[in-house]
Write a structure and sequence with these properties.
heterodimer, A: mainly beta, 4-stranded antiparallel β-sheet, B: mainly beta, 6-stranded mixed β-sheet
Chain lengths: ~110, ~120
């Protein structure tokens, strides 16, 4: 089945530690996205990528980094500079980046700080 | 500024009741898209509907219907004869041509359907 796989489902970070969230898609989509969801809040865009080796900052990119070395993979690193990392992280993809494109989402990673 | 407002934070209904989820948006663009997504307890968002700004026809899909009114900048979602499986958080989102790709999400409405 085609879809988006996020791992792990739960992740814990110690103070000062970088952690990486995995996102893999087999939909052959060009565009991939990372969103952050806080309780009672909408989704906020962290980074997005239109094609391999290209990515752009979203609304809340500070303290995060990404890479796009392969079309199917778009990992997100939460760095120690992100002072409030506890949140639910959602990865998404679309055929391409366009304002009329619907997004396909993974099942998310819950990140907590120890 | 919040571009998409979902004023209802939580709604609780009894099975078989009809329920309407409100969505009000704000844009200066003439070309834009509106979306509804469902987030069940499993976490992933599931696409429900996409509507462009030039198509004001209401849409019905089974027990779901959407009422798009440009005059009031609203895109409301109605579930008829609700079921327990409809329990989820529902998000309305706006995408504007001038902002490129970006989807602006509302804060979501949590719907609980009890037996």
């Amino acid at each position: 089945d085609g879809g988006i796989t996020q791992s792990p489902k739960y992740l814990f970070r110690k103070e000062g530690q970088n952690v990486t969230l995995s996102c893999e898609q087999n939909l052959n989509h060009d565009a991939m996205y990372w969103y952050r969801q806080d309780p009672g809040q909408g989704l906020r865009l962290i980074y997005y990528s239109q094609i391999v080796n290209d990515f752009q900052k979203g609304d809340i990119a500070e303290g995060y980094s990404v890479s796009r070395e392969k079309k199917e993979s778009f990992p997100l690193t939460v760095t120690s500079a992100q002072k409030n990392p506890t949140a639910f992280y959602l990865c998404a993809s679309s055929i391409f980046v366009g304002f009329n494109e619907k997004l396909f989402f993974g099942s998310g990673t819950q990140l907590s700080v120890l | 500024a919040q571009k998409v407002t979902q004023a209802q934070t939580e709604i609780s209904v009894v099975e078989k009741e009809d329920v309407t989820l409100d969505c009000v948006y704000e844009t200066r663009d003439t070309t834009y898209y509106l979306f509804w997504y469902k987030q069940p307890p499993s976490g992933e968002l599931v696409f429900l509907i996409r509507r462009n700004s030039f198509d004001e026809q209401n849409e019905i899909s089974g027990r779901y219907s959407w009422n798009f009114q440009k005059s009031t900048s609203s895109f409301n979602f109605t579930i008829t004869a609700s079921q327990v499986v409809d329990s989820a958080v529902y998000f309305c989102a706006l995408s504007e041509e001038d902002s490129g790709y970006a989807l602006n999400f509302g804060k979501g409405t949590s719907l609980l359907v009890t037996p």
